[in-house]
Amino acid sequence: MNYWDKIVGKLLFISADKKDEQMKEMIKKLIVVSYSVKEACLGKFIKQANFLYAIAFFQWRYKYPNDVKWMKEDLEELIEQR
Questions:
Q1: I need a surface site. Which of 15, 16, 62, 72 has the fewest CB within 10 A?
Q2: How many CB atoms lie within 10 A of CB 49?
Q3: pLDDT tens digit string along 9-48?
Q4: Region for 19 from its dihedrals, namely left if φ exceeds 0, alpha if ψ lies in -120 to 50, beta otherwise
Q5: For the range 9-16, what are the long-range contacts, defined as Cβ-Cβ under 8 Å and sequence gap of 24 or more?
Q6: What is the pTM assigned to this prediction?
Q7: DSSP 10-24
């Protein structure tokens, strides 16, 4: 079981709990999505998560500097680029 299947299973459980037939039909279509599409969607999800993590890390480093040499301007530039 991969992350895609786990999410689809949770959605199916929620739709059954709410007795939402339209949602059930959509989820049934998600079950038969090809592997390449699943891989592309999850790849995009991971890239976006890494992107947000990097922003959060640089913001944290900017707010809580340490003794390691770093340039405030460099961090500002990295945060703005993201």
A1: 72
A2: 10
A3: 888 888 888 888 888 888 888 888 888 988 898 899 899 9
A4: left
A5: none
A6: 0.56
A7: HHHHHHHHHT-HHHH
